[in-house]
Amino acid sequence: MKELLIELFSYLFFLLRVLAFVALVTVVRRLVVHWRKVNQVAVVVLGDIGRSPRMQYHSLSLASHGYKVHLVGFSGSTPHGSIANSSNIEIHHVKEAIIKGVPRLVAYLLKVVMQSLYLVKTLMWDVGATESILIQNPPCIPGLAVCLCISVFNGSKLIIDWHNYGYSILAMTLGRDHLLVKVAKCYEEFFGQLSSDNLCVTRAMSADLQNKWNINAKVMHDRPGPLFKPVTNDEQHKLYNLLAEKYPEFRSREGDNKSGNKFTYLNDNEQVEKKGDRPAIIISSTSWTEDEDFSILVDALEMYDLEKTSSLPDILCVVTGKGPMKEFYKGILAKKEWKHVQVVTPWLEAEDYPTMLASSDLGVSLHSSSSGLDLPMKVVDMFGSKLPVLALNFSCLDELVVHGENGYVFNDSQQFKKQLLTVLSDFYESNDLVQFFRGNVDKFRSRTWMTSWNEIVLPCFESSLPGSIFSLFVAVCLLVSTTIELIILFRV
């Protein structure tokens, strides 16, 4: 028994020596990089940077306050030009781990390991030490754990921006009772509680984080960036003509020689006017995933096509975005023989998307939220462009879309179709309802992203709180291990 205890204590002392060594290296590392990391911030999103508008806005806001921003994420879509043109923002692309040819569970585990290594390499060698790390969640695995370890090693603050729960998105595919979902939930809770500061997108999520995990998150509602704003008729005309060159759905009808597109023309005074028989443009930006039921839009458009009267406009439905179910729904749409409805899925440059929103008549959101606690960024962008919205209902949507004030909220395709008929009933006349909605959208637009960001987010980066709770744990390990080592040394 005595030999067993001696062996057990020897393993314990070895572990403490390792902890002491790691703690010592951490202290030395922090001393070395202390001055080097001043005013340096890493903004991390384990996703396509170009399709992460909120993290781009964070980066631009930080850069405007003199911070050197390292924007870390996957390549793919091109970020907006203001990101590339900023001398204070540097983009670092993380290699995306792709595992094929092995069972699903093995592939998932291998992907976590490989993605962790790629992220560590980018943050440690390409980016270097920073004062703060701001990470988007989800995805939470492996980003939260890696960024926490890096923040401890460099003495950085770890700030989590909660857009949703990662485990709730995973549950949509695997089911809430799946082992991986339960592990992901525990992981997200554990590492979330070790952060220095937290942000989130809704009051509902802030309350849920506090009640469920005792995490105090400041609410930073999404606000439209400066790119999303109303545009002139000239800008609309230019975009319509550009799209008409690529997509026949935008081209003028046969026999119409006024212009190359079916929406606007130049009058005798060379001023842009809208055509009297133009279709209504409704636009929806989708990720083509399971949390957006695109069939609701398809069914509603089919009913509209059947019930359309002479006083109602034809509809051109513009659907932007890319995702796993896009080709599936494109196949369904290709089989439709609608007379009064067309659907087009154009590829828009980052600079053209805001103009397309502002050139549309009505926005549509099919976002349903896996947690019921986040809000669709696409609606924020639509509001920024002064575009009223019809949105699929879920629990906290009223923090953004107020039924009957800045748009309508629907629960199914039947309601959606009725709302389309109502909103477009006087499209060619006064268009009163749309104008009423636009007026109320202006109230939302009056509070800008920068105003909110300066009040809510900037203090998180200016405060001098410890890097993270885990830093305290490291310090305790150093103290305990050093004390035990000294005791052993003196006894020997």
Primary descriptors:
492 residues, alpha/beta, seven-stranded parallel sheet, six-stranded parallel sheet, elongated
What would a concise description of this structure say?
By secondary structure, this protein is of the alpha/beta class. It has helices at 2-33, 53-64, 81-84, 104-127, 143-154, 166-174, 179-192, 203-213, 233-246, 294-307, 326-334, 352-358, 377-384, 413-423, 432-445, 449-456, 458-462, 469-491; strands at 40-48, 68-74, 89-93, 132-137, 157-162, 197-200, 218-219, 264-266, 272-274, 280-285, 315-320, 341-344, 362-365, 389-392, 407-410. The strands form three sheets. A seven-stranded parallel β-sheet has the order 3-2-1-4-5-6-7, sandwiched between helices.
Helix tally? 18
Shape: elongated
- Beta-strand portion reads 5-15%
**Backbone CA Rg:** 27 Å
Strand order of the largest sheet: 3-2-1-4-5-6-7
**Spatial gap, N to C terminus:** 22 Å
Structural class: alpha/beta
Share of helical residues: 40-55%
Q: What value does the average pLDDT take?
A: 85
- What is the makeup of the main sheet? 7 strands, parallel
- Any low-confidence stretches, pLDDT <50, length ≥5? 465-470
Number of strands: 15
Question: How would you describe what is shown here?
Answer:
The longest helix is centred in the first third of the chain and has 32 residues, at 2-33. With 492 residues, the chain is of the alpha/beta class. A seven-stranded parallel beta sheet has the order 3-2-1-4-5-6-7, with helices on both faces. Residues 465-470 have low confidence and may be disordered. It contains 18 helices and 15 strands. A hairpin with a 5-residue loop joins strand 8 and strand 9.
